[in-house]
UniProtKB/TrEMBL annotation:
SUPFAM superfamilies on file: DNA/RNA polymerases
Keywords annotated in UniProt: Coiled coil
Organism: Mugilogobius chulae
Protein name according to UniProt: Reverse transcriptase domain-containing protein
Sequence ranges assigned to domain Reverse transcriptase in this UniProt record: 303-572
Origin superkingdom: Eukaryota
Pfam families: RVT_1
Coiled coil (UniProt feature): 151-178
Keyword Coiled coil part of the UniProt annotation: yes
Higher taxonomy: Eukaryota, Metazoa, Chordata, Craniata, Vertebrata
C-alpha cells in the first residue's frame, strides 16, 4: 500500500486515517503484544455511540513489590535483628509472641521500603503478566509520541511514533517469550504446576461471580456454615453402635524432632510461592531473604513443635468459593466448594509436621493398606490398576463383577475434632506434646470468605479439616481408618482414595448371598459414618456391572445400574473397552493442541517440548497401564494425538511420514508407552517402591532346585482362560512383559539406570534400530 502525504498546511482528517492504517498494519505483525492506537476516528465515533455507563471502581491498598524489595528487606531485617530486641526472638518461649514480634518487625520494614498505596481499579481485564517496567516505559514513550503527533501533525512526529511503536512491540514480544520460558523452566519437574500455570496464561479464567460485594461474601459464609450444620442434622445417630473400642497402638509418637536450618531451607525453597491475603510478608520475599529471616523462622517452628502450640494467627483461613465444575451455574451456591488459603508460614509449619507424621505412619504400617489417597508411592493409577486387575481376574472365571462407588457429602467439612483426636491417640499412638500440638491445631480455628477484594466477617470452624491445607488429607485418612476393617468383615474387596470409597464383588450364579452380604455391609457402613458425623449420599452413589450377568442376577441388584462411570478420572464401561475414556482424552488433547499454538511463537523448541509433555503426553499417559489389550483402533486414535503433537513441535506437514519424526524426538509410540508404564510398575513392585497391594500381585519364580534362572528375576505367569479378560490383567500381562526383557535389564537394581535401559530397549523395538 502506498501512502501519499499532503503538504503540512493542508493535513486534516485524511492524515489521521492514514496514520491509523499504518499503526494498525504495524500492530498486525505481532497481534498478542499489540499497541492500542488512539488515533482511529472510527473507534472514537464508536465510543460516542456506546451508552455512558461508568465502570464499577473498587479501591484497595497494596504494596508495590519490585525486584529490589527482597534485598532491601533482608538488609533492614538484619539491621533490626542486630540493633533491637528482634535479635532475641529465639529466647521468646511462646510461639504467639514470636509471631507477633516477627510480624511487627516485618510490617515496620515493609512500611518503609514498600508502603501501602491506594489503588483504584475499574472492572476491566487484568494487564498481561509479562509486562514489566521496561515495557511500561516504552508504552509511555508511544503515548507521548502520539500526543505530540496529534498536536503538530508533522511528518517527523509520525516517524517518531512509528519507531516508538515498533520498539514497544519488539519489547513486549521479548518480554512474553522470557515470561513463558521462565514458567516452563521453573516448573519443568512438576507437570501439574506447569500445566496449571500455562493454562492460566493462554486461557485465563474469567470472573465467575459478577457484581461482588461484601454481602456476597456474607452469603457464602452463611451457606458454608449452614451446609455443615444441615448435614450433621440429617445424620441419624445410633448411640448403641460402638465401632471404636479401646485400642493399644503398636507404637507411640510423643515428641517432635527439632528442625534443622538445612531442612527448613529445603522446605521453604521447595514450596510454591503462593500468596495469601493473611501474609504479612509475601512468600517470594521470604524465599529470597531466607538468609536473613531463617534463624527467626527456625526459632518459631521449633518453639511451636516443642510446646505443642500452634500460633493463633496460623489457625485463621481465607476461604475462596471454587466452582466444582466449569459448566455449573455460578448463581447456585451448592455448586461451589470452599477452598482454604492459609498463611505461607502456616503451610511451612504443617509441612514440617507432615514429614515426621508420615514417616511414623509408614514405618509402623498404621494406614489402611488399600487407602491410596495422598500417600507416597501411591497414586490414582496404582489404585485403579489394582481394582482393574481384580475385576479382570474375576471376569476370566466367567463371574460378572459389580462395582459400587460411594459418595460422601462434604466429608472433609464434617470431620468431628473430638473423634479425630481420639483416633490420633488410640489408633495412631500420638501422645505428649505431639498430641497436644494437634489438639491446638484443631481448636479455635476460624475462617472468612473472600471474593476478589471483598470479604466477610469471621466465623468459627468447629468441625472439618481445611481443604487446601497440607495436613488435611492425611488427617482425613486417619479419620477413616476403621472403615476398612468393617468392610473386611464381610469379605468384600474395597479401595479408598481419600473420601472416594469403592466396593466390588464377583456375582456367583447364586448371587443372593453375596448381595445380602453387600447390603449388610452397607448398613454397617452407614451406621459407622453416622457415628462419625459423615453422611452417605445415596443419590450420587453409582453402580456398574462388568461382564454379562444373567437377568435373574440383575433383578436382585437394588442399585440403579450405569453403562459407564467415572472412577478417579477414568471412564469405565461395562466391557472395559475404554472407548468413552479414549474419546474424552482425544477431544481434550486436540483442544490443548489448539491452545498451544497460541504460545508456540514465544517458546524455544526445548520449552515447547516441555509444554507439549505437560499438556498432551500427560493426558495420553494418565492411567495408560489400564489400556493394555484394548483394540488397535482405540490405540490408533491415541497415536493420532501423539502424531499431531510431534508435528506441532517439529513444524512438519500432516503428509510427512511420522515414524522418522517420532524417532528423531525419541518419543515412544503409544503402544510402547503402555508397556513402559507396566514394566515400571513391575520394577518398583520388586524393589519395594510400589504400594504393597501391587507387590502382592507378582511372584518371583523359585525353582525346586538350583538353576541358573533362579538369579535372573523371572516372574511366575498365572494361567488365564480368555484373551479379552485374563490376558489383559496385570497379574498375567506384567510377568509376560517382564520375562521378555533381557536378563541384563531385569537384574538392574537402580531405578534411574533401569529407566534409561528400558527406554532404550523399547526404542529399539519400536523403530527397529
Amino acid at each position: 500500500m502506498s501512502i501519499h502525504f499532503l503538504p503540512s498546511a493542508s493535513r486534516k482528517s485524511p492524515v489521521c486515517c492514514c496514520c491509523c492504517r499504518v499503526c494498525l498494519r504495524l500492530c498486525a505483525r505481532h497481534r498478542p503484544p499489540s499497541f492500542p492506537s488512539l488515533l482511529c476516528e472510527e473507534r472514537r465515533r464508536e465510543r460516542k455511540r456506546l451508552p455512558n455507563t461508568k465502570p464499577v471502581t473498587s479501591v484497595c491498598h497494596q504494596r508495590i513489590i519490585t525486584s529490589t524489595t527482597a534485598v532491601h528487606f533482608a538488609n533492614a531485617f538484619t539491621a533490626a535483628a542486630q540493633n533491637t530486641e528482634a535479635a532475641g526472638l529465639g529466647a521468646v518461649p511462646c510461639p504467639n509472641d514470636i509471631v507477633s514480634l516477627f510480624h511487627s518487625t516485618c510490617s515496620d520494614i515493609l512500611d518503609s521500603i514498600a508502603p501501602f498505596r491506594r489503588k483504584s481499579s475499574k472492572s476491566k481485564s487484568k494487564p498481561d503478566p509479562w509486562l514489566n517496567e521496561h515495557t511500561r516505559a516504552l508504552r509511555q514513550c508511544c503515548r507521548k509520541a502520539e500526543r505530540r503527533y496529534n498536536k503538530d501533525k508533522l511528518q517527523v512526529s509520525l516517524e517518531i511514533l512509528r519507531e516508538s511503536l515498533s520498539n514497544y512491540q519488539t519489547a513486549v514480544r521479548e518480554a512474553k517469550c522470557q515470561y513463558l520460558s521462565n514458567i516452563v523452566t521453573n516448573s519443568s519437574n512438576n507437570p501439574r504446576v506447569l500445566f496449571n500455570t500455562i493454562q492460566s496464561v493462554i486461557n485465563p479464567p474469567g470472573s465467575v461471580l459478577k457484581n461482588v460485594t461484601n454481602s456476597t461474601c456474607e452469603m457464602f459464609l452463611k451457606y458454608f456454615v449452614e451446609k455443615v450444620a444441615l448435614v450433621k442434622t440429617n445424620i441419624i445417630m445410633n448411640a448403641n453402635v460402638v465401632f471404636d473400642g479401646p485400642l493399644t497402638p503398636s507404637a507411640v509418637f510423643e515428641v517432635f524432632e527439632p528442625v534443622t536450618m538445612s531442612l527448613l531451607s529445603e522446605i521453604i525453597q521447595g514450596m510454591r510461592p503462593t500468596n495469601c491475603p493473611l501474609d504479612i510478608v509475601p512468600s517470594k520475599v521470604i524465599k529470597q531473604a531466607f538468609d536473613a529471616v531463617g534463624p527467626c523462622l527456625l526459632s518459631l517452628m521449633n518453639s511451636s513443635l516443642s510446646t505443642g502450640t500452634v500460633p493463633t494467627v496460623f489457625k485463621h483461613a481465607v476461604v475462596r468459593p471454587l466452582l466444582k465444575k466449569p459448566n455449573l451455574d455460578p448463581t447456585v451456591l451448592s455448586d461451589f466448594r470452599p477452598v482454604s488459603h492459609l498463611p505461607f508460614l502456616s503451610k511451612v509449619l504443617e509441612k514440617l509436621v507432615f514429614i515426621q507424621l508420615q514417616s511414623f505412619l509408614e514405618n509402623n504400617l498404621i494406614l489402611e493398606k488399600f487407602q491410596s489417597g495422598f500417600r507416597s508411592r501411591h497414586s490414582t493409577e496404582s489404585a485403579l490398576l489394582k481394582v482393574h486387575n481384580d475385576i479382570l481376574t474375576a471376569l476370566d472365571t466367567k463371574k460378572p463383577v459389580m462395582l459400587l462407588m460411594l459418595d460422601l457429602t462434604a466429608a472433609f467439612d464434617t470431620v468431628d475434632h473430638a473423634v479425630l483426636l481420639s483416633r490420633l491417640a488410640q489408633h495412631v499412638g500420638l501422645q505428649g506434646s505431639v498430641l497436644q500440638w494437634f489438639s491446638s491445631y484443631l481448636t479455635d480455628r476460624s475462617f472468612a470468605v473472600m471474593v476478589d477484594d471483598y470479604s466477610s466477617s469471621s466465623a468459627p470452624l468447629t468441625s472439618g479439616v481445611p481443604q487446601g491445607s497440607i495436613l488435611g488429607p492425611v488427617l482425613f485418612s486417619i479419620y477413616m481408618l476403621p472403615l476398612g476393617s468393617i468392610i473386611a468383615k464381610y469379605n468384600l474387596s474395597c479401595h479408598l482414595y481419600a473420601d472416594d470409597v469403592q466396593l466390588y464383588l464377583p456375582l456367583l450364579p447364586n448371587a443372593a448371598p453375596a448381595l445380602d452380604s453387600l447390603n449388610n455391609c452397607l448398613l454397617d457402613i452407614k451406621k459407622w459414618l453416622a457415628h462419625n458425623f459423615l453422611h452417605l449420599n445415596d443419590n450420587k452413589t453409582e453402580c456398574i456391572v462388568f461382564g454379562q450377568p444373567d437377568q435373574v442376577t440383575l433383578s436382585r441388584v437394588t442399585f440403579p445400574l450405569s453403562e459407564s462411570v467415572r472412577n478417579l478420572g477414568v471412564i469405565l464401561d461395562t466391557e472395559l473397552s475404554f472407548d468413552k475414556q479414549i474419546s474424552a482424552v482425544v477431544r481434550a488433547s486436540f483442544l490443548q493442541l489448539r491452545l498451544l499454538t497460541k504460545i508456540k511463537p514465544f517458546l524455544s523448541r526445548n520449552n515447547l517440548e516441555k509444554a507439549v509433555h505437560a499438556f498432551i503426553s500427560s493426558r495420553i499417559d494418565y492411567c495408560n497401564a489400564l489400556y493394555l489389550g484394548i483394540s488397535q483402533s482405540s490405540l490408533h486414535r491415541l497415536q493420532l494425538v501423539q502424531n499431531a503433537a510431534a508435528r506441532l513441535l517439529t513444524n512438519s506437514s500432516r503428509y510427512t511420514h511420522i515414524t522418522p519424526i517420532l524417532s528423531s524426538l525419541h518419543w515412544l509410540p503409544v503402544r510402547f508407552r503402555i508397556d513402559y508404564k507396566i514394566l515400571m510398575f513391575v520394577f518398583k513392585a520388586l524393589h519395594g517402591l510400589a504400594p504393597p497391594y501391587i507387590s502382592d500381585i507378582l511372584t518371583l519364580h523359585r525353582p525346586s532346585r538350583a538353576l541358573r534362572s533362579s538369579s535372573q528375576m523371572v516372574l511366575d505367569v498365572p494361567r488365564s482362560r480368555y484373551k479379552q479378560w485374563g490376558d489383559r490383567s496385570f497379574a498375567v500381562a506384567a510377568p509376560k512383559l517382564w520375562n521378555s526383557l533381557p536378563v541384563s535389564l531385569r537384574v538392574v537394581s537402580d531405578l534411574s539406570l533401569f529407566k534409561t535401559g528400558l527406554k532404550t530397549h523399547l526404542y529399539r523395538q519400536a523403530f527397529n534400530t
